[in-house]
Amino acid sequence: MSNCGCNIDAVIDAAKKKNESRVVNIQLLYLDLEVCEPCQETDNSLDTALAEVSELLEKSGHAINLEKIHIDSEEKAIIHKFLSSPTIRINGQDIQLNYKEDHCSTCSSLTEEASVDCRTWVYDGEEYQAPPKQMIIDSILKYVYSNEKQDLTKHSSYQLPDNLKVFFESQTNDKSSCCSNNSEC
Fold this sequence. Notes:
Elements: H1 8-21, E1 23-30, H2 37-59, E2 63-70, H3 74-79, E3 87-90, E4 93-94, E5 100-103, H4 105-108, E6 117-123, E7 126-128, H5 133-145, H6 152-155, H7 162-180
Parallel strand pairs: 1-2
Antiparallel strand pairs: 1-3, 3-4, 5-6, 6-7
Helix pairs in contact: 2-5
């Protein structure tokens, strides 16, 4: 057995890192997909964008890993550093760091008299209730082909936004009121 002076473990680790960097982890974080129209439209737009861009990414050696995360509690919001619903992240990076919010009547209908805001997407100077398909495709391609890749969720401080506190508190109140009547929840 010859000793070539190379560290096989280092070579294997480097190969693993190269393959891991080829995985594009995409997350959709949302409050509700059954009632919330902005969340539903964002989900549809994301699915359409991924259908169009996935072949290109696969041909360039990238794999897509899609995860849809229902943020149904303050605890989950804190764990995921959730700022606004809906959110799309690519390898932990929000596709729109500077976001706006607007009243969401469908999310508000899920609460007991609370007014809830959902994200408003800004793309090419226009505001949208859901991100346009092209915005998502552009974000994915910019991320994949950019040299600057960082997971902002690991480095930034986080505080649960008041809007989400109100949403979750009113959800808790709804559940406790139905349970207090001896109904099944």
